[in-house]
Amino acid sequence: MDKLDVKIDEICQRIFALQQPVASDLRFIMSAMQISNEIERIGDLSVSIVKKAKNIKEKHDLVVKFNIAAISKLVELITVKTNHCFITREESTIGEIFVLNKEIKNKTDEAVHDIINEMKVNSKAVVSGTNLVIVLKHLERISEHCTNIAEYVYFMVNAKIIKHDKMDDILPKE
After folding, report:
1. How far apart are CA 135 and CA 48, in angstroms?
2. CA torsion through residues 53, 54, 59, 62, sign
3. SS3 for 61-111, per residue?
4. 8 A C-beta contact, residue 111 and residue 68
């Protein structure tokens, strides 16, 4: 991932230096550089999740009890939608990503709260619970990176930066 990230940066820099890109090309190049950085971070978090998961002793019990599989499936879905968003540049998919990110954040916060309460009453769950909280926070962060990618796609399509806008201002009105 790191090598591909560097390669994308080099290609973009070469285009800047040797071509005369128009505005839409510049938006694409700028977004590609940022998106490659987001993807590289997602890769790093994924590796970290695998490492942390090995340290969860009561893995199955805790994962089932706190419905971690459902959160994982949502994170998988948001990554698939993010890929689709980049390929198709459909604004409706961008909105779906924002909604999914909010749902993932809410479910993660709830699960972390429940795990902490479990650790308070069951000292045997502290080590596994702590690792599980870290995994959940990494999953939440992957979701945030997907949202960042959707923001860059929005910039490519609409020539408007929405980084700090409220979601209600961005989503299409029904």
Report:
1. 8
2. negative
3. HHHHHCCHHHHHHHHHHHHHHHHHHHHHCCHHHHHHHHHHHHHHHHHHHHH
4. yes
Segment 159-173, tens digit of pLDDT: 888 876 655 555 555
Q: Give the pLDDT confidence of 70-113 residue by residue, as tens digits.
A: 999 999 999 999 999 999 998 889 999 999 999 999 999 999 99
pTM: 0.83
Please name which of 19, 46, 65 lies closest in space to residue 142, comparing C-alpha atoms.
46
Distance in angstroms (rounded) separating the CA atoms of residues 59 and 49: 13
Which tokens hold the place of 2?
Answer: 């790191």
User: How far is Cα 82 from Cα 25, in angstroms, rounded to an integer?
Assistant: 21
- Alpha-carbon gap, residue 116 to 49, rounded angstroms: 19
Angle between helices 23-53 and 2-18 (to 10 degrees): 170
Could you tell me where the DSSP H helices lie in 122-171?
A: 126-158, 167-170
Residue 122 in 3-state DSSP?
coil
Residue 37 CA from chain centroid, whole number = 12
Contact 56, 62 (CB under 8 A): yes
